[in-house]
Design goal:
The complex is a heterodimer of chains A (357) and B (354). Chain A is built from 13 helices and two strands. With 357 residues, chain A is mostly helical. Chain A has a single domain, classed as ABC transporter involved in vitamin B12 uptake, BtuC (Orthogonal Bundle). In chain B, strand 1, helix 2 and strand 2 form a beta-alpha-beta unit. The chains are: A mainly alpha (357), B alpha/beta (354).
């Protein structure tokens, strides 16, 4: 029979190395899948993971794709670390985009250095307010934050649909479901001519630094970590649980809102129905792959972003089905959770005793 | 810092030039909004791509490309990796297509269903689907018992409103008591929403279901409920063999082959193409014999007349819902009016969502 035992000593360095192991296992598993599909595995993996970032444009695209994932995942890490399961970052992103986009439309054909900061700030506030709904319902009415935050994603999506089809649609756009293109003053400055990488990356880096500061150098960060380890201890220590829950949701929502406003003022330049290809959900994988650690999340967001780019190049050069990208994301998470299990638990194979037969 | 920036810029340009020259073979790229197996919109574009391939031209496609920030990268990658002609097959690719076209003046771009041609290397194309709708209206008007036609609509854009109006006008011609009921689903492809809409319309007394969305769900619901239906984009007959009277087929193949060969031979020119039954971009699937041979003959004749131009889908007198005249008696609507159509004709129920 098989017996599962909890390990008492887990080394910290191995804990942070398992994601790397998971990535290697994914590469290996991916190679096998490519082989079964009839492709040369080495060549396919090269097109998947190396070709997309072999020139400056590719590197810039990697950062464009990783920026929102990193921002959202950083925000989510506050929630997840303190045992608050905010699944609705996608909704907070969209709502942030709606508020920021609304302000951008208000400033249509309006010049001024203050336009963009106001838009960014309003996007962050939009996401923050939207995230406070599940937080307040959880703290004062004991609702389940997983359900509430998830259902609010659909509310945000439908609201966006309504706005771009109806009141905010481009008056010269033949009723197509999209707003006007924002004015130049409302767009993120591009960092290099010919590339799409924009100033949003600085917002992300500042956010990463601030979140590291909060998590590891402040009383609030200490509270978050203790609550994550044991809610009872946190209560015993006299932490004000309700305030903390609302604050972590506010941080998380603000980050998602920033990601949304970064997308619409950055690469997209207007509001339409598809401002996010489910960044808010993918960021959950990113957060866990990065071990809920700010530095880890940076790397995780780059890797997950690469699976998107890789799926596109592999399809262009080899006509590999595009959904392999999602298979890779699934495999990374699967191998990470699998190695975590083996990290924290010991499996003992015992001989069968006679009386059990 | 400035030097570093300059150096990176130069290497970027170098790489760009390098990848442009890397492949001399003529290649055509396609960008799809859905999976190639959707049995609707994308499926038909991919059939067109296969025809280009069969004509001896190498093709590449990328499927399920979201209409957001990702589209520009995919289009640019195709341009960068040596594709000479790129078809972007969804409305949401309009701005990204024009943006990339600016940076690749030697690559030709073709955008489906859009109206922006900001650079001389961007052409647009679409089909006169409304001609097919006229045929559906004729059949619906003859076949309905409840005088109620259920219509599942996607977005209130001119193309969809044109289809609703063309169908209603044709149905009224053969059956003046006809009513058109519309459910807006605000999606092009969502089997769940589409089947709910079909059921709601049947519950309201519609015994004909037609759709301007791409999944096979509505015809399957119609089959189950025992009412008539029409397929969209591809021949959906096998999904509802009893219920489907015919399908409007988008046949992009001839256009794709023609334009690919023109681009290869250097005769490609910017243009705005709007082809219909005449050129074969709109085709009809075989008619269901359940409607009777007389009606089949009538419809076949009407199809010929529409193709030859003897009959026009929008021939006056046409009135809007309030009874104001839109097209005078004897006149036909011009393409400009059709392209910007944003009012319902008399006989359609409800308001256009604003």
């Amino acid at each position: 029979m098989i017996k599962v035992e909890k390990r008492s000593d887990v080394s910290r360095s191995i804990y942070f190395l398992t994601p790397v192991l998971a990535i290697f296992l994914t590469l290996f598993g991916g190679g096998i899948i490519f082989f079964i599909l009839g492709f040369n595995p080495i060549e396919a993996l090269k097109f998947f993971f190396i070709t997309p970032i072999s020139d400056l444009y590719g590197l810039s695209e990697l950062l464009v794709k990783a920026t929102p994932l990193c921002l959202i995942a950083i925000g989510l890490s506050f929630c997840f670390k303190s045992n608050n399961w905010n699944i609705g970052a996608e909704g907070q992103l969209i709502f942030g985009g709606i508020v920021g986009g609304g302000v951008a439309l208000l400033f249509y054909n309006h010049d001024g250095f203050y336009v963009l900061p106001i838009i960014i700030l309003s996007g962050a506030i939009g996401g923050m307010l939207f995230a406070m709904i599940p937080a307040i319902l959880k703290t004062y009415f004991n609702t389940n934050e997983i359900l509430v935050s998830l259902m609010l994603v659909y509310v945000a999506k439908l609201l966006l649909d309504y706005l771009v089809v109806g009141p905010w649609s481009n008056p010269e756009g033949f009723n197509f479901p999209e707003t006007r293109q924002f004015s130049e003053s409302a767009r993120m400055p591009i960092l290099f001519v010919g590339l799409r990488i924009h100033a949003g990356i600085f917002i992300t880096l500042i956010t990463v630094f601030l979140s590291w500061l909060i998590l590891y150098k402040t009383y609030l960060g200490f509270q978050i970590k203790v609550s994550g380890l044991s809610l009872k201890t946190a209560k015993y220590a006299g932490f004000k649980g309700k305030t903390m829950i609302i604050i972590v949701f506010m941080i998380s929502g603000a980050c998602a809102g920033l990601a949304g406003v970064g997308e619409i003022t950055g690469p997209i330049g207007q509001l339409h129905r598809n401002i996010s290809p489910d960044y808010g959900f993918t960021a959950i994988i990113v957060a866990f792959l990065g071990r809920l650690n700010p530095i880890g999340i940076i790397f995780a967001s780059l890797i997950v972003a690469l699976t998107y780019l890789g799926a596109e190049t592999a399809q262009i050069f080899l006509q590999v089905p595009k959904y392999t990208g999602q298979v890779f994301q699934g495999m990374i998470l699967f191998f990470l959770l699998g190695s975590d299990y083996l990290l924290f638990f010991k499996i003992k194979f015992l001989g069968l005793k006679k009386n059990e037969l | 810092m400035y030097k570093l920036f300059l150096r990176s810029l130069i290497s970027a340009l170098f790489l760009l030039g390098f990848s442009l020259n890397a492949n001399a073979e003529f290649k055509v790229g396609f960008v799809y909004v859905g999976p190639t197996g959707d049995h609707g919109w994308t499926y038909q574009h991919d059939e067109g791509r296969k025809a280009v391939e069969a004509a001896g031209i190498k093709t590449t496609y990328v499927e399920s490309v979201p209409e957001g920030a990702d589209a520009e990268r995919v289009i640019r990658q195709l341009a960068q990796s040596g594709h000479d002609l790129i078809f972007t097959t969804s409305f949401g690719y309009m701005d990204p297509t024009n943006k990339v076209a600016k940076d690749f003046p030697n690559v030709k771009f073709e955008h489906a269903t859009g109206y922006k041609r900001e650079h001389s290397n961007v052409a647009t194309y679409s089909a006169r689907f409304y001609e097919g709708r006229t045929l559906l209206g004729h059949m619906a008007g003859k076949m309905t018992k409840t005088n109620t036609i259920g219509y599942i609509a996607s977005f209130p854009i001119p193309e969809v409103i044109r289809g609703i109006n063309a169908m209603t006008l044709a149905a009224q011609k053969v059956n003046p008591d006809i009513k058109t009921k519309i459910v807006w689903v605000f999606t092009w492809y969502d089997p769940g929403k589409e089947s709910e809409a079909a059921q709601a319309l049947i519950d309201q007394g519609a015994d004909i279901i037609m759709q301007h969305t791409d999944s096979t769900a509505p015809v399957q619901v119609a089959e189950k409920a025992g009412v008539w239906s029409f397929g969209q984009a591809s021949d959906m007959q096998r999904f509802a063999p009893k219920s489907i009277l015919t399908s409007i087929i988008d046949d992009w193949a001839p256009y794709y082959v023609e334009r690919s060969i023109a681009a290869r031979d250097g005769t490609w020119k910017q243009q705005d193409t709007w082809h219909g039954l005449k050129e074969g971009m709109v085709a009809m699937a075989p008619y269901n014999s359940a409607m009777g041979s007389d009606l089949v003959k009538e419809v076949e004749q009407l199809q010929k007349d529409l193709a030859s131009g003897k009959v026009h889908s929008f021939t006056g007198p046409i009135y809007d819902q309030k009874g104001n005249i839109l097209v005078a008696e004897g006149a036909v609507a011009d393409d400009g009016m059709l392209a910007g159509m944003n009012v319902y004709v008399k006989g359609v129920e409800g308001d256009i969502p604003q």
